[in-house]
């Protein structure tokens, strides 16, 4: 994996990052027989998939098919009932405490509802991605953030085209701009895997295209493993490398987007499909 570099400052966004796995040998994210139930209803029914460095994978399916639950299980926001999750070579099921927290730092999640601090600047929000690397005292306030972290955050903002808005309060930015700041924060976290849960559902069509293009660019140019939950198959066709279709908690296809047919899409969204949860 090549270090991300600011076009303006030459500051790396991936300084001190562990050497990545060979993408041709081991996926950065590998999920095996993942299961989850809510109130006795099966939401995920033993699904298997992987995401390799350098690819953008789109998860497609109707509401309740298990797409968001899948990503939340990977991030530990929802506890799975069974199966295994390997992240950057670490089997999460065998880790506890600080070891588990350190392993999960290899992944960052971007949500439909953008979780930024509106009154803080874009730069300060992006710096938050690196707080886990700071001492407790240094992480208490932006006033204590070290120069190196601020330079790294600026490089990450530059990477997503937001360096010129670094000092603006996030609350004054558009939805698409805020989503790009959230992606910059993920870069500042030095994540190898980026999970995006409906990242464009609240954006206008132009902003949605920009964010999806950026996700694809981060996968292809930065060699990240990127997985995005989408409700728009047309966006997957234009930007993703591979599509995974979920129906009633099961994967019914996992193929290159060039092989995605209208019949396959109809199967996902047909009125009689039923819902997993």
From TrEMBL:
Q: What organism is listed for this UniProt entry?
A: Crystallibacter crystallopoietes
Keyword Transcription present in the record's keywords: the answer is: no
Q: What is this protein called?
A: Phosphonate transport system ATP-binding protein
The record, for SUPFAM superfamilies, names: P-loop containing nucleoside triphosphate hydrolases
Tell me the Pfam families matching this sequence.
ABC_tran
Q: Taxonomic lineage per UniProt? A: Bacteria, Bacillati, Actinomycetota, Actinomycetes, Micrococcales
Q: Which domain of life is it from?
A: Bacteria
For the ABC transporter domain, which residue ranges apply? Answer: 29-273
The molecular function GO annotations come to: ATP binding; ATP hydrolysis activity
